[in-house]
Design goal:
Elements: H1 2-18, H2 21-59, H3 63-96, H4 106-113
């Protein structure tokens, strides 16, 4: 079953791979744009998870406090992994694409919403 999913994924990407290099770069740029739009939302949810766990740690006691402490630790691990992966995406974007990838800011967030002509 896994073999068919893998082969289906490769076959789905074949038209993209057969386009000219400019078309492929446009496709990759769109993927980076979507990731750039989703990343602030995911990061915000992770920070919210950490803050809720912190409040639970302060308010609760006993076994609930231990559970909240465990959730806080996992929240920090999740944030670290997400920031590290985003940095890796930036390094790979700089290495393989001339425009590179940067962390989302207000200017490049609003620019990505406006279609380019």
């Amino acid at each position: 079953m896994k073999k068919y999913i893998f082969l289906g994924s490769i076959m789905a990407l074949m038209p993209v791979l057969t386009f000219a290099a400019g078309e492929f770069k446009t496709f990759i740029d769109r993927i980076f744009t979507v990731i750039g739009l989703i990343m602030p939302l995911v990061m915000s949810l992770a920070v919210l998870f950490f803050i809720i766990s912190l409040v639970m740690f302060i308010v609760k006691d006993g076994e609930d406090k231990a559970k909240a402490k465990s959730q806080m630790i996992w929240g920090i691990v999740i944030l670290f992994v997400m920031i590290s992966v985003w940095g890796l995406v930036g390094v790979l974007g700089d290495a393989f694409f001339e425009s590179g990838v940067t962390a989302p800011t207000k200017s490049n967030f609003t620019d990505s919403l406006v279609p380019k002509s």
